[in-house]
Design a protein that fits this description.
Number of helices: 9
Largest sheet: 7 strands, mixed
Order of helices and strands: EHEEHEHEHHEEEEEEHHHEEEHEE
Number of strands: 16
Structural class: alpha/beta
Radius of gyration: 18 Å
Strand order of the largest sheet: 6-5-4-3-2-1-16
Bound molecules: zinc ion
Distance between the termini: 15 Å
Helix content: 10-25%
Shape: globular
Strand content: 25-35%
Length: 290
Amino acid sequence: MGSKRFTYRQLNKDYAYWIERRRLGQERGGCVSGHLACSEEGGIGQNVLFDCGLGTLEAIADFCPDAFWDQPLAVFITHGHIDHHAELMVLSEIYCTRRGDLHQKRPPLSVFCTEPTRRHLERTHWYGFNGGATLAFHPLVPGQPCQKGPFSITPIPTDHFEGAVIFAVDFPSAHRLVIAWDLTTPPPPFAALHSPSLALIDATTWCAMKDWTSHAGIEELVASGFLEGLDLSYAPDRQHYGAYLVHYSGLEDPWGMLHDAGLKARFDAAYPRLSDVVRVAERGQVWQFE
Ligand SMILES: [Zn+2]
Ligand SMILES: [Zn+2]
C-alpha cells in the first residue's frame, strides 16, 4: 500500500463565462468548479467534484485522464444557482450509462447538498433524480462534517442563497482546503475555516456592492476582516498556498472586467499586506498535497 497523495484542481474559475471574457482575449472557460482527488499507488481512491456548472464537462475532458470516468466519484453542490449545477444531469448520464457494458447501468451518482439545494437541483435535473435514476441525493447538514473517502467535508452555511454553503475540507494529513465561492456576507472566523493550506474565495466584483450582486466583492472581503481572519500563509515547500480568487466577473464594477494579471496588480496596490497570500486562480490550475 503506497502513501496517499491529494490533488486539487480548479477546473473552471470564472463567473463571467468565456463569451464575456472573450473581449479580454480568453477563449475558453466556464463557471467555477473544482476537482479533488485522492490517489494511492495503483489507483485512485476517491474523486470529489465541487459544483458542476457550465463548462465542467469540457474542463474534465481538458484536464482529467480518461480513467476519471471509471473511478469513484461524489459531487458536492454549494447552492442552487444554475451556474453551480447546470451540467449535473449530463455528467450523471455519462458516468452511469456510457462506461460499462451497453446494458449495464451503474448505481446513481451521489450528490451531496443541503435540503433546500436539493429542491433546486431536483427541479432542474428531474429525470436524473427520478426515471433516469442516475442521481441520488445525500443530505448535508450545515456544520456537520461528512466523510467521503479520506476527506472530512464540513458544509458551513452562508446567507448567499437558500441552503447555500461553503466547504472546509480536512485531509488526513492535516492539510485543509476551503471552498468559499458565492459569499454575500463574509462569515465570521469559524474555527473550521482557520489556517487553510489553500482557500478558493469568491471575488465576483472588486467593489462592495452586495445589495446589487449578492456577492461580497473584494473590498468587503478585506474590510470585514474575513481574508485576514483566515490566517493564510504562502509556503509552497510546505504545501501552503494561501488564497486564490475565483468566481470573478468584474462586469458590474464601474471600470468593467479586468485581466487576471490586472486584478492581481490592483489587489497588490490596494492591499500590500495581503499581496503575498492572495492570488488569482487560473483555469486548470492544480495544487498538490501529501
Ligand atoms: Zn450564487
Ligand atoms: Zn455563482
